[in-house]
Amino acid sequence: MSLETLEREGLVQSDYPLAGTTTYKFGGSAAWYAEVANRDELSRVVSATKLPCLVIGRGSNIVISDAGYCGLVVRLVGEFNDVTVVDGVASAGAGVALPRLARSCAAADRGGLEFYVGIPGSVGGAVVMNAGGHGSDTAEWLIEAVILDLLTGEVTHEDTGDLELGYRHSRLQSNHIVLSARFRTIARPKEEAEALMREITAWRKQYQPGGTLNAGSVFKNPPGDAAGRIIDELGLKGLRVGGVAVSDRHANFFVADANACAQDVFDLVHRVQHVVAERAGIVLEPEVRFVGDFGVSS
């Protein structure tokens, strides 16, 4: 079975534009693209090629090169978007949006995952990056995740220790695909959970640049400090490269104009890194992920 055969069947598409799959709304095309609704379709697609494979969730922390991606891009739909909350355990497919997971728990009078309402990512991405905010993170609530290893074809059930979850980190690599996850929750009346989520949403509206093209937090926070505070203190709010600028509202968000391109983001990230390293002696590590080929930043 080849990707060309699967294309004739309608399961994959070639030369697929990726701009619409990310929150920045720019970037080139994928050589191949597939939306898979179950494990069987996923297995058929990934076994049909030796090309590199990239799973895109909500596209909120990724920048696709203007030149595109030369491999296979997979988006998990169908059963990967299922959510259930039974006996205090929330089970969710890897494609489930984190705000939806938080609200599903609240509707079942369960709490703990309210912080997810402020993270515009997916369950799969949350496991890979140990997503967190507002005093909590994925590691605190995750029971286990189901992982597919593309190199071996093996499917494993791994807990937080197996995954080696740390600050915006797990042991998972590009050959791993998160299929689903299970989370513990705590008893909390729906009204209280919804009130907490409203507080989080209001905080984000006040302090983060909503309604703009951005990819969320650009840099990981250094130990004991905040990347946004450092960038702000150095007077870099408003710094611009092409169509992308450091947000005036939150310095760890880089917002794009309609005429921006992926290379602009790449160049601005490296310029800010250079200034911070030179003037503050701090090496900022990107949280946003760059995919594909980029030119050398000046």
How do the strands of the widest beta sheet line up side by side? 6-7-13-11-12
Contiguous runs where pLDDT drops below 50 for at least 5 residues? none
Name the average pLDDT. 95
Helix and strand composition category: alpha+beta
* Count, helices: 9
- SSE topology string: HEEHEEEEEHEHEEHEEHEEHHEEEHE
Q: Please summarize the sheet with the most strands.
A: 5 strands, antiparallel
CATH architecture of the largest domain: 2-Layer Sandwich
If you had to describe this structure to a student in words, what would you say it looks like?
- There is one protein chain.
- The chain is α+β, with helices and mostly antiparallel strands.
- It folds into 3 domains: 74 residues, Uridine Diphospho-n-acetylenolpyruvylglucosamine Reductase, domain 2 (2-Layer Sandwich), CATH 3.30.43; 126 residues, Uridine Diphospho-n-acetylenolpyruvylglucosamine Reductase, domain 3 (2-Layer Sandwich); 65 residues, UDP-N-acetylenolpyruvoylglucosamine reductase, C-terminal domain (Uridine Diphospho-n-acetylenolpyruvylglucosamine Reductase, domain 1).
- It has a 5-stranded antiparallel beta sheet with strand order 6-7-13-11-12. The protein has a 4-stranded mixed beta sheet with strand order 1-2-5-3.
- A hairpin with a 2-residue loop joins strand 9 and strand 10.
- Helix 3 packs antiparallel against helix 7.
- The mean pLDDT is 95.
